[in-house]
Here is the input.
Amino acid sequence: MNNLYRTAQFLLSTPDLKSAPPDEGLEVAFAGRSNAGKSSAINAITSQKALARTSKTPGRTQQLVFFNLDDERRLVDLPGYGYAKVSLKMQKNWQLNMQRYLNERTALRGLFLLMDIRRPLTPFDEQMIAWTQSRQLPLHIALTKADKLSRGNAKSTLLSTRDQLEKQGVPCSLQLFSVPGKIGVDDAHEILDEWLVVRK
Ligand SMILES: Nc1nc2c(ncn2[C@@H]2O[C@H](COP(=O)(O)OP(=O)(O)O)[C@@H](O)[C@H]2O)c(=O)[nH]1
Ligand SMILES: [Mg+2]
Here is the structure.
């Protein structure tokens, strides 16, 4: 694994863009429903146990969390969405923040969208996808918790999800991901290396 990921460090967390790091360098953001496995994926990708906090209680992280890879590259853990107990006002606020971040952030090189393999392409996911498309932002989708399905079912869900996205005319790459199953970290690195222009 490239050391860049292993040495990732927490930079700052902020509820809105005002306190985000300067819009310079290169950034890849991780998005998905609450509990989809974003923080777990960031930990697996950086080979660190507790860089991004993981939680059994969905909806805790309502902040954008920035991690430094080096002086010019960052990973961002975006606030989870689709948590039922969040008020309408907070949902609206989340929408405005996400839309602004995805539309305006110049450093943003691509979006990693994480979806629980047992419920891919929820309306919230479709909303995120639409925002990436409106700016032609590169999109990579990881179907998480692949260990929750048999190998065969995981594979066929990957294929049917790819099919559905193709039908919608959404250009993106897809992969399976599982932390306990140790599936997908290499695939994720390949995409990140490409987007963050990491020389090997
Ligand atoms: N079985 C399984 N559980 C996972 C996997 N990834 C995350 N989880 C669990 O799913 C829950 C939510 O994970 P978390 O990373 O906090 O999700 P986030 O809200 O998207 O950041 C936690 O209990 C994790 O341990 C996985 O690949 N397989
Ligand atoms: Mg999280």
